[in-house]
Amino acid sequence: MPNVGLLKASEPLSPKNRVIIRFSVEVDELPVYNESYDIDELLQELHDQPEETLKRWSWRLLSTAYARDKEGFSACLTRGLIDGMGAPKGKGEGVDLKEAICGNAGESQAPNVS
Hints:
The protein is an alpha+beta fold. Helices cover about 40% and strands about 20% of the residues.
């Protein structure tokens, strides 16, 4: 949190405050993948290309879920982040992550994590 007083805590942030979104994937507390995004740049991308920006952001969730039970977790994760395709070890033609996780009719195809 920015250094604010008790009475100013609910006021909007100053434009000089830099706001960053961090995406991190860890396996047993070991960082496997990290990204940082400046919110001002993301807002510009959302304004210019909203569908593409949201699609690529969804790849962060989908690729992590898909790679969870695949060989070569890190390579599989990275592949999904790049092109939205899931492939064990990050190789080969791959499958569409949204279809692999959500199915055609929205039925859950999520990996078994129990």
